[in-house]
Amino acid sequence: MSTSPRAAQQKFEPWKDPEAKPYVRIEKITKQFGDFLAVDDVSLDIYKKEIFCLLGASGCGKTTLLRMLAGFERPTSGRIYIDGVDMTSIPPYERPVNMMFQSYAVFPHMTVEQNVAFGLKQEGLPRTEIAKRVVDMLDLVKLGQFAKRKPHQLSGGQRQRVALARSLVKKPKLLLLDEPLAALDKKLREHTQFELINIQETLGVTFIVVTHDQEEAMTLSSRIGLMNHGEIIQVGTPSEMYEYPASRFAAEFIGSVNMFEGRLIEDEPSYVRIECDDLEVPIYVDHGISSSPGATVWAAIRPEKIMMSREKPQQADNWASAIVQDIAYMGDMSIYLLRLDSGKVVRITQPNTYRHADDRITWDERVHLSWHPESPVVVTK
Amino acid sequence: MKQGITVFRAIVLTLGFAFLYIPIASLIVYSFNESRLVTVWGGFSTKWYGALFRNEQILNAAWLSIKVAVLSATLAVVLGTLAGMVLARFGPFKGRTLLSGLTTAPLVMPEVITGLSLLLLFVTMEQLIGWPAGRGMTTIVISHITFTMAFVTVVVQSRLSQMDDSLEEAAMDLGARPHKVFFLITLPIIFPALLSGWLLAFTLSLDDLVITSFVAGPGSSTLPMVIFSKVRLGVSPDINALATILVVIVAIGALVAGIFTARQKKIRDRDAQMALAANQQMIESLKKG
User: Fold this and answer.
1) ipTM of the modeled complex
2) At what angle do helices B137-162 and B96-108 cross, to 10 degrees?
3) Quick one: fold of B56-266?
């Protein structure tokens, strides 16, 4: 999992400030296509200069929501405010919003320059200003030398930059990006991710990004809105989404996870114990949860938070015994699939810190797993 | 074994070309025939070309045919584009199936029926509103628009459904109002389809005999009508001369189109090379940081 470059910078968390005014306000938006409910009562507040990612599988309603922000779809009910102005029934050509399309939608009959200038010409700006802004924008996306080329004389990555330049040159209040990196190959995608963040910070434009790729969402965004079946499941920063998923769906969608179904046998304000059919000893969690004793709950433990050893751990709770079923060597780390005695397979990852490890745990060995009491996340739905 | 296949291929090729081109070749040869009798060779002569250019009836008919073809092809492209646009872009509105059926009906309707129904329409209209007064160029043009528009609609509609909708949305997103989107984005992109639609309509109009015969009036005979009526009285050699001229015009057109396509392919190859080089360049510059 890549870490967000934002983490290194000073804290940018306007959503925690009760004084802060949301820049984009989505208020109880619902969109119905015939009988199909594409977006179901979604409310979101997005703040200025955020990169907000709408994350979800295809058909979850994220693109429909984006298209409603752009003005291509009219919501069935609910309102959209941008910078305090009600945009719900404003047509796309009058919104201070621009969109970068998944297909890039670069005009094939115009040169790079003409593509970028198109939006400014529609505003009726003076020729000299258009020329200047186009040159500046092409320099920013490093396309200066390709200004006179037609789109089919460019590579996919360059077409993507034309699309980006074209939508940014209008200085929109809000830039919508529909799967911006999906069509690029892996190496180019990584570079472009960081470049996109740099450009966003240089220009200070608010971004809303739609993606199905959780890694892309984790790298780019200040916050993620996870969607499923037209609803927002959870909103949070990338690390909140990963470390504190609010539901099984959220835990399983972002990263991989080991999910243990069990019953609450001890429910105290400062700790809980969960008995699982798959484990010999209970799971002990060092914080309380809001549920009642006896209730069915799920304990989610991330693969990198489980330790593996040949010796049996000393503690009474939070361990299990298993047999190594499979190992995948990934270079930087290895993935172990371990079969518990109940038959359940647990996935753990181990960093390959040392180059020479003759004593590495191998296939069919019996091992013991253990984890810290703070590692499991308990979810009730 | 391999030799046998080559011989077989050569025979098939010869037969194929013979089948296609011997009629045309014999027509051209006989257009230079001295004799008045079409099927008897009487020595080389170009006199029938001279006779052709003195034949007022044929020249007038050719001129009328060209006027009708240009006019009806142009109007068919305008109407066909509108219909194609509505069918491809306006979603499942009420009456869409009806519209689509009506615009494409002339494609499947026997020409005799189209011609007859148009004739009935024109006669009734003349009685009721006095227009079009009599039958002539106006009625021919209207009829030709009716059936060529169907072809244009199909061409334009299929081109539009291949076109990425997001191009139009992107233009709108960048601040262009719908009519500007149409003229600045949609129209230039589908222009090749309009051009081929126009050429198709032009050819069909120039070629049509059946529908035209129904709706033409006295003194408004098109070229196919004149040729047909002349042939009925026995083929005269000047018709061979006329046909040869038409063949030459078509051949030149095909040749120009061929050269143009070859050049386009060359340009496309060069552009693909450029895109590849551009990609390399970009990867290099990204590596440097």
Assistant:
1) 0.85
2) 120
3) MetI-like fold (1.10.3720)
